[in-house]
User: Fold this.
Amino acid sequence: MKFKEALNENEVIYQDKLNKIFDDKTTDILLELEKTIQDFWNVDRKSANFLNLTVKMINAKSALEIGTSNGYSAIWIAKALKETGGRLITIEYWEKRMALARENFKKTGVDDIITPVVGDAIEILADMKKEDKLRFDFIFIDANKAEYIQYYNSFEPLLNKGGVIIADNILSHYKKTKDYVEQIMNNKNYQSQLLNFEAGMLLSEKLF
Assistant:
């Protein structure tokens, strides 16, 4: 079998197994949400699977998502948090999108561990900084690309040592995310790696 053909065959197997990670109802809902990926700017399935794996691998107990949309990525994250005993706070600017997300959270059985917050992420994060005991093990950024650097400057003190940040759209929106990328890549307290998923993800671990 030629190498390219082998890759294609493994890709089919990989996608099929992803469909069996969750219960049938959750799988059906996620598959339906994938049909509207362009309308709601969701991550692709491989990226979502990576988010799920990362949460489990670092045994995250507290997670933050900036950019909920219809809840696709939050479901993947929350399903992992169900296994680690964690919770998720997810922020969305648009109420209509959050309303859809809430419905999807309930349908997939993760609404009990998710705190949805509607509003401007920069303002919400500024308020979070005032909470003495609020800390995160895992943070996913997928909102206004030009504001990534502002999000980071606000939530950075809230990220625990050993915590992980994953930022989406690093390649697809390189110019808008450039300031964030340069700042975290040059921060000696972080180790980072660019991941060549569909839109490009930057994985960063807080070392100190």
In short: The longest helix spans residues 3-18. The radius of gyration is 17 Å.
